[in-house]
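pinging the channel bc i need a second pair of eyes. not urgent but kinda urgent?? the chain im working w is below, pasted from the shared doc
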Amino acid sequence: MENSLRILIALGGSALVAYAVVRVADLVVRRAGERQPGTPLWVLLRRCRTPLFVLSFTLLLGWALARDDAGAVGRIRSLCLIGSGAWLTVRTASALVESSYARYAGRTPDRARVRRVRTQVTLITRVVSVAVGVVACAVALVTFPSFRALGTSLLASAGIIGIVAGVAAQSTLGNLFAGFQIAFGDMVRIGDTVVVDGQWGTVEEVTLTFLTVRTWDERRVTLPVSYFTSRPFENWSRGGAEMTGTVFLHCDHATPVPLMRARLRAFLDECPGWDGRGWDLAVTETSPTGITVRALVTAQDPDALWTLRCAVREELVRWLAREHPVALPKVVTGQAPHEDG
């Protein structure tokens, strides 16, 4: 009875003291954030409250129950200490990295460079999380005597195991190295507009093994990162977001092309999606049944270009139907006249 009461007192006292430690740390971080409102680090550090509580509680409980810190109880406390320490390390590292990225993004006007750094920061955070997790698992396994006894034999066979694992995980390792190549080779970045496998969309997420593209209809296409290092793809955001697009119309031979060209220019002058860099309208092809008219327009980014192309196509068709219906394409359905004789 006395032992159970002592354990309950130790649990309650450790929880109260750990809660007080977390509250004091949170108050300090909050005051620092109020003194430096432009620094996101203090806001991000507040996410460390839960792992800090678990770590403090485990340490205080181990100190209060030092006499019982043996056997299964001591091993459980060690595992909790290792896990909470790894958790706190990952949260702190993520806060530092994200804070550095936020400051860099706030003072860098080049959006392409910001997207590149964001991709690198994302992968660095994931690598740190995986590395800390692996180290924590290794340290946790060492706490078991059976694993310590097997340490010598495991190290002796590490070479063979490494060769077998490398052959078995060749695809996974290839994706891993491809992820680093994408992040630091500036091939594709989060926020880039790409066309892969006939799918047009925006890069939404880049991990160590896969990449997610959000298409224009809000679908998610997941591809291995090795796809971008082994196959050609279109990146419309490289070298600037400005783009040039075309609109093709099939018309009759009687189409007043000069008037159509003037109408296109008048419409572009009133359209907010046109960036003013360039435009053109020309007959690019002719056939026995009609002509093909190409309208060329420019816009500041792929999304604006898509909207502008649709607006130009709609306006030119409406203008032809209203002002020059004879220019609309015709389908001959009657029979040719036959000569007698």
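so The chain is about 60% helix and 15% strand. and The CA atoms of residues 210 and 224 lie 4 Å apart. — does that match what u expected or am i reading it wrong
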